[in-house]
Amino acid sequence: MSTKGLSLFAKRRLRVRTALRARGGTRPRLSIHRSGRHIYAQIIDDAQGRTLAAASTLEKDVRDTTGATIDAASSVGTRIAEAAKAAGVTQVVFDRGGFLFHGRVKALAAAAREAGLEF
């Protein structure tokens, strides 16, 4: 795929995902997306092309109490780890989606690790 015309962020996203596929093997991927208002996490099985578990700050039970904060990202990390355990997933590859491993992304990853997800 040609990267001509892509933004630096899009190039970084492709570079990160390509490296994960090379090293990840058969593990599902914990994919993160953050916006100015929310943060989202999915566990994706690339072999089957389907989402095994998902969590975000948009879920009905937490929508009014969360926002774009480190605390909200930590709660999403805990909830995605619980959903992964329910789906039978314990080991994943962390796909930061081109976002720097800092702030909310780092908080989500730390909370998921503490809740028992291995990556």
UniProtKB/TrEMBL annotation:
Taxonomic superkingdom: Bacteria
Classification via InterPro entries:
Ribosomal_L18, Ribosomal_uL18_bac-type, Ribosomal_uL18_bac/plant/anim
* An example Gene Ontology CC term for this record: ribosome
Q: Which UniProt keywords apply?
A: Ribonucleoprotein, Ribosomal protein, RNA-binding, rRNA-binding
In terms of Gene3D superfamilies, this protein maps to: 3.30.420.100
The family this protein is said to belong to: Belongs to the universal ribosomal protein uL18 family.
Tell me the subunit arrangement: Part of the 50S ribosomal subunit; part of the 5S rRNA/L5/L18/L25 subcomplex. Contacts the 5S and 23S rRNAs.
Q: Report the protein's function.
A: This is one of the proteins that bind and probably mediate the attachment of the 5S RNA into the large ribosomal subunit, where it forms part of the central protuberance.
What NCBIfam families does the annotation carry? L18_bact (TIGR00060)
Q: What protein name is recorded for this chain?
A: Large ribosomal subunit protein uL18
Q: Which gene encodes it?
A: rplR
